[in-house]
Write a sequence for this structure.
């Protein structure tokens, strides 16, 4: 992994400051510095240069009065998609799969969708008439 995360940066840090830091340490970069408030990213030509940058700079070089941190960049974890059908019902349900202030599971939504040849569309119109919307967790 050749992408580096540069942390603990001053809000005044700009790309040219970081270019100077890397140039002074004789560490090449293979792209521009992407600077955000308090942190930045940069690519190194290969893994060996990335490791040298971490060893030479992390906690050892000060920029605008703060010691910079240099680490391998870790990609954000992607959240799995949320699939749920939530219905709040007043009174009993004819299908028995849901009742007052409960939620269908994904499996139940899928079964119901197969039964009606519709995908996640909720209860039939006759039952929809009995629905009300309330904030979650309130009876």
């Amino acid at each position: 992994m050749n992408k580096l995360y540069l942390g603990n940066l001053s809000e005044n840090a700009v790309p040219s400051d970081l270019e100077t830091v890397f140039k002074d340490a004789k560490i090449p970069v293979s792209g521009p510095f992407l600077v955000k408030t308090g942190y930045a990213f940069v690519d190194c030509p290969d893994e060996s240069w990335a490791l040298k940058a971490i060893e030479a700079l992390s906690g050892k070089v000060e920029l605008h009065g703060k010691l910079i941190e240099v680490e391998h960049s870790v990609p954000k974890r992607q959240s799995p998609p949320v699939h749920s059908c939530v219905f709040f019902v007043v009174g009993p349900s004819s299908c028995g799969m849901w009742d007052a202030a409960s939620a269908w599971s994904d499996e139940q939504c899928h079964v119901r969708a197969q039964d009606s040849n519709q995908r996640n569309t909720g209860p039939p119109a006759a039952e929809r008439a009995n629905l009300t919307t309330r904030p979650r967790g309130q009876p």
Summary: Residues 98-120 have pLDDT under 50 and may be disordered. The first helix runs from residue 15 to 24. The two ends are 52 Å apart (CA to CA).
